[in-house]
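Table S2 (continued). Query chain:
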Amino acid sequence: MPALHELQAAFLQAMFGPDEPQLLAAIAGDGLLPAARLQIYRHHVLTSLTEVLQATFPVVCRLVDERFFRYAADAYIRQYPPKAPCLFEYGADFPAFLAAFPPCRHLAYLADVARLEWALNTALHAEVRAPLDPTELGGLAPHDMAQLTFQFDPSVTLLDSPWPIDQIWHVHQVDEEVYAPVDLNAGGVALEIRRWEDDVGFRRLDHSLYTFRTTLAAGHALATAAEAALAVSQEFDCVTALHELLTDSVISGFTL
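Corresponding output:
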C-alpha cells in the first residue's frame, strides 16, 4: 500500500492529468469502477475552478463566448493547478496564459483585459491599510524630500496597454443597456486600479503621471520619479503630482 503522501501526490496528479494506476488500486469501487469514481471528483474540481475563473474574468468570458472560455479555462487549470487554498487567489497566471494561448492570438487585446480584471480582483481582496497622514512629512528637511520613497496601498495596480481596455471593459458590463462599439485604433491607456473605501475601480492617468507613480511604486526615490516623469513631458508639475499623491489615500507609508 503506498504511503499517504504518495497517495496525496497521485490524487493531485490525477485531478489535472491521466489516472494514476497506484491511485486507482487504492480506491474502493463500492458498486462503481474506481476510474469512474475518480472522474466524478475530477469533473467537480474542474467545474468549480472554471466557475472561479468566470467570476474573476467575466468580461473576458463575454468577449470570447462562454463555451470557448470553458475550453481555455480547462487548458489553463490543467497547466496551472491551484497552489493556495483561497480560491480568490487563483487566476494570477491566466492573463499570461491567454497571451500565449494559440487560439487567442487574433485577440491581441484579450490578455490586457484579463490583466485589468485580475487587478480589480486584487484590489477587492487586498489588505486594508490606513493611508499616510501627510502631516507626518512635516518634520522633514527640504533636502530630504528628494530621497523619499513611498509604500503604495496594497490594492493599487498600475497598468498600461496599447489598447483601450477600459472602454472594452465598460461596454461589456451586464448592466450596459446600449452597446457602444470600441475603436481599437483609438490608442492605449495608462490606468490606476485600486480600492476606494468599499468599492474598487480604475481611472486613466496621463503618461507623465503614470510614469511618476510607477517609478515610485517600483521603490525609487521621489527625485528619480520626477526626473522620469519630466522625461515624458516637460509640462509635468512635480509639486501638484506630489500633493495629489499624498491626499488621495494611495500612499500607506514612506521611508528615507
